[in-house]
Design a protein that fits this description.
heterodimer; A: alpha+beta; Ubiquitin-like (UB roll); DNA polymerase, domain 1; 2 domains; 5-stranded mixed beta sheet; B: alpha+beta; Uridine Diphospho-n-acetylenolpyruvylglucosamine Reductase, domain 2; Uridine Diphospho-n-acetylenolpyruvylglucosamine Reductase, domain 3; Enolase-like, domain 1; 5-stranded antiparallel beta sheet; 4-stranded antiparallel beta sheet; 14 strands; 35% helix; globular
Chain lengths: 164, 292
């Protein structure tokens, strides 16, 4: 076992310090050390996107990021998306459109979709499908997920208009 | 995953010292999208990962009249395709970095890492070859430069020796009336590894009727990405026509020496080289005409 490294980071808006070995992925640190078990381990090789988290302003597969690389970074996980007031509109739309079945891929899809809508508030269906290509779902056939994200975009834009 | 040490190097010389000390037991960590998977799957063992993402020169994008575009080797794909100057000057590079993995991978994976991983199917390497890119390698005895077409020497092998690492990639400023294009064949629309990839760059005359010069490069049809020299040379000075583009495609097919594997047979790949070379050349020509 090699020496543990002290890492200082920010997760879901809160300053967090942890110790980890270089060989531990960010996903392992989140789940096993910090008990944030929302991000899931699917393939563990960067293909399925179930472990997607936001690091800085980019979504990454946390299974292929080392925990030590989180030093000084801002991380957002699925746990940081709903507020005490309720679900995020994307989460609400996933429920309304039945965009999940077994649910393992859902945290990754929601984190990815949120990043998409922050960058592109009015995506086309093609934009949504292309953006979500790095998230695999073996249950839904994707259609309901794409519908939920498109509808969430509408809901978020209405919210923005209402607040204007 | 096996145990290893991790150092985030702060300077090029610190990274060189660490690499020299540990020899082949040390490896540069850039985006980690290949390296971490290889170590986890026991396809590579090492004692030390040297993270170079905190070294400024390795992560910057800069433009100069002497060197053209200088891409820090660890610059992630998304920074490249979000750069408006690269977008307009090097569209063939944008084609390649936009299709490496999904959005999550593009947030970390770098062109330098794509080169150093030395996969025969690396998408960005043919795009760099046709843009006449140069790899800048730092090592214990100073800095040296190698043409992108000579960087990979075998699957997973590069021209770099112990103690050396890739710090940046220089791409000359494009000529007027020029453009570039990269495409690959995969059985789905995204998130896949090239069955065959083809890149082309062209310089046309003022009237856009003839080639002044052209470059063609191929991926996934040999142990390394290939520069198609004869296909490139035979286009120089020729009037643009289907016939001359077909000749170039045939010359490209002649140098392809693909294998059959799970992604495709050697015959299919040979055929695809012809199709993709034509499409890459036509794609680059059309881009010059569109930007008129």
């Amino acid at each position: 076992m090699s020496k543990k490294t002290h890492v200082q980071t920010e997760i879901n808006g809160e300053g967090i310090e942890f110790l980890c070995e270089p060989r531990q992925s960010l996903l392992e640190v989140l789940r096993d050390e910090l008990h944030l078990t929302g991000a899931k381990e699917g393939c563990n090789n960067g293909n399925c996107g179930a472990c997607t988290v936001l690091m800085g302003d980019r979504i990454v597969n946390s299974c292929i990021v080392l925990g030590v690389e989180a030093e000084g970074e801002k991380i957002e996980t699925i746990e940081g998306i709903a507020t005490s007031e309720g679900l995020h509109p994307i989460q609400q739309k996933f429920l309304e459109h039945a965009a999940l079945q077994c649910g393992i891929c859902t945290p990754g899809f929601i984190v990815s979709s949120k990043a998409l809508l922050e960058q592109n508030p009015t995506p086309s269906e093609e934009d949504v499908r292309f953006w979500l290509a790095g998230n695999l779902c073996r249950c839904t056939g994707y259609h309901k997920i794409v519908e939920a994200v498109m509808d969430a975009a509408k809901a978020l834009n209405t919210e923005v208009a209402d607040n204007a | 995953m096996q145990a290893f040490e991790y150092v985030a190097a702060k300077s090029i010389s610190e990274a060189i010292d660490l690499l020299s000390e540990r020899g082949d037991q040390a490896r540069i960590l850039s985006g980690g999208t290949d390296l971490i998977v290889q170590v986890r799957e026991k396809r590579r063992s090492l004692e030390l990962m040297v993270d170079v993402k905190q070294i400024p020169e390795v992560n910057e994008i800069s433009h100069s009249s002497a060197d053209g575009l200088v891409l820090g080797a660890s610059t992630p794909c998304y920074k490249i395709y979000n750069d408006p100057d690269i977008k307009s000057a090097y569209p063939g590079l944008i084609d390649a970095v936009s299709i490496i993995g999904g959005i999550q991978v593009q947030g970390r994976a770098s062109v330098g890492g794509n080169l150093c991983n030395a996969s025969p199917a690396a998408d960005s390497t043919p795009a760099l070859i046709v843009l006449d890119a140069t790899c800048v390698i730092a090592g214990p005895s100073g800095t040296r430069e190698v043409a992108a077409k000579d960087f990979c020497t075998a699957p997973g092998q590069t021209t770099m020796e112990n103690g050396e690492f890739l710090t940046s990639i220089k791409i000359p400023t494009p000529d007027t009336n020029s453009s570039s294009f990269y495409l690959r064949f995969i059985p789905r629309n995204e998130m896949d590894i090239a069955v065959v990839g083809a890149g082309a760059s062209v310089v046309l005359d003022e009237s856009h009727k003839s080639f002044v010069s052209a470059h063609v490069a191929l991926g996934a049809v040999a142990p390394t990405p290939l520069y198609a020299e004869e296909a490139s040379n035979l286009l120089s000075g020729q009037e643009i026509s289907d016939e001359i583009i077909n000749q170039a495609a045939e010359a490209a097919q002649a140098i392809a020496r693909p294998i059959s594997d799970m992604r495709g047979t050697a015959n299919q790949r040979k055929h695809l080289v012809g199709v993709l070379t034509r499409r890459a050349l036509n794609g680059a020509v059309n881009r010059v005409k569109e930007t008129k």
